[in-house]
Design brief:
The chain is of the alpha+beta class. The chain has 9 helices and 12 strands. The N and C termini lie far apart (114 Å).
Length: 449
Amino acid sequence: TSIFFWRIFFLLVFIYFVIFFYSKREIKMSKKDNTKIWPFKYNQLLHIEDHDFAMRPGFGEGPIPVGIDVQIESIDSISEIDMDFTMTFYLRHYWKDERLTFPSTRNKSMTFDGRLIQKIWVPDVFFVHSKRSFIHDTTVENIMLRVYPDGNILFSLRITVSAMCFMDFSRFPLDTQNCSLELESYAYNEEDLMLYWKHGNKSLNTDEHISLSQFFIEDFSASSGLAFYSSTGWYNRLFINFVLRRHIFFFVLQSYFPAMLMVMLSWVSFWIDRRAVPARLSLGITTVLTMSTIITGASASVPQVSYIKAVDIYLWVSFLFVFLSVIEYAAVNYLTTVEERKQFKKRGKISGIHNIEAVQAMAFDGCYHDSETDIDLTPFSIHSEEYSVNSKNPSTPTTDSAQLKRKKSLKGHVGRIILKNNHVIDTYSRIVFPAMFIVFNFVYWGLYV
């Protein structure tokens, strides 16, 4: 029994020394690992455990001033359909909390990540009229907290916000849009918290490489104001204002230039023979359908607003010019038919025979032959025969005055042929339509540009 007792005794002693050795080793390892005791260090240094940070600093001493400055990284997108914009920027807060003062021989600040934010008081700034917003978290949350020995604090966030922009499309696409991002405290009114721009107008900074595909950024500015809520009172509000001017070259290529070409193409029908019905009718219908396609494509890129836009005025006026060119030919064709009926009644059967011959000739070579024109061409043929006889007989004296008379008579006959084959409405339309369209363009571009 004594041997058994001693064996148990030595075993217990051995176990005691093993436990003592491992516990001492763990204490040494914990002393070498600074990360395990670091939370205890900043808790003790900043006196976090000694204060209730649910209350704002300086409670009962008036509103706490919180300075703001913004570094805009990019404007990611601007949507006319949704009437919003998306922006990525660095939002920095500056305030003083004397509860976080700490002694420092070198007067150096301490920098922390987002894990300390949960234990201290920070301003509750939110974005008015925002649709979506988030703090970037790759590879960790993009949050930085810097505490100075005298209690001054810098709190920085990297945020992407999608907010509303109340756009006016009455001058689209020759418009300039004014958008703004508004910052405000959610819980603390002006009696508890005072938001202000830290460095005045210089508190808003932008990167030089910011650019947009459809807009040119004309101006960035910072402003401030007050917002009133009936149930909670007045709140300080900060504004990030930026002015966007739209690039027009895209819309010139997609809408204005094609519409202009279609209008000019519709004028070609004024130079086509009035009896070439298929040619003039197909040209008019083609231009009308093309203008309808252009108008549909232009309206698909903007929201369905209830007022008239600048591009609508240009496209619909262009459509009206194209449509009037078709109506013009309908009037010409109708009046031509009325005139032919009157001539047929006056001439009787003889004129009827000539008209039948003219129709047959048109069916043969595709041109209309008027009887009067054929009669008028007789002197021209006689002159041409005389000219050929004179050329064959070298002894016949020819003078310069005779040649000039022949040229004048030739020009006169050609002019009569053109006037006989075209209605007077076509003649006036060749001048009136281009003149009115040029005047419209002068007025339009002078008014909107």
